[in-house]
Amino acid sequence: MLLVFITAIAHLLSALRLACYRRDEGSNWRRNGLMNSLCGGAFCLAGMDLLLTAASVSPWHAGVSVLACALIIRSGGNIMVLWRAVK
């Protein structure tokens, strides 16, 4: 149960950070905004699903969720910074 709660909170924190990202009016602001919105929505739905259904969560899922949350918070909510780093 603790793993489910940790994973759900990590998903919701990631979604909140992506939702609170302040966009600058740069060259690709539409693509950045769309990517942030899609990822934020996916994280929010995943977190709410875990909280409402209390589905079983593997330690790998929890670890990857916490890592993703830390990376999103560290990047300031700009998911495109992480996207460019992976490319």
- Summarize the amount of helix as a percent range: over 70%
The SSE string, one letter per element, is HHHH
Number of helices: 4
State the oligomer.
single chain
Overall structural class, as computed from helix and strand content, comes to mainly alpha
Indicate how many domains the architecture comprises: 1
Question: Judging from the principal axes of the Cα atoms, what is the shape?
Answer: elongated
Strand content: under 5%
Low-confidence stretches: none
Distance between the termini: 36 Å
Keywords: Membrane, Transmembrane, Transmembrane helix
Protein name: Phage holin family protein
Organism: Pseudomonas violetae
Pfam family, one: Phage_holin_3_7
Summary keywords:
transmembrane helix; single chain; elongated; 4 helices; mainly alpha
Describe this structure in words.
- There is one protein chain.
- This protein has 87 residues and is mainly α.
- It has one domain.
- The protein contains 4 helices and no strands.
- The protein starts with a helix and ends with a helix.
SSE topology:
Blueprint: H1 2-19, H2 29-53, H3 59-74, H4 79-86
Helix pairs in contact: 1-2, 1-3
Keywords: Membrane, Transmembrane, Transmembrane helix
Pfam family, one: Phage_holin_3_7
Transmembrane segments: 33-52, 64-86
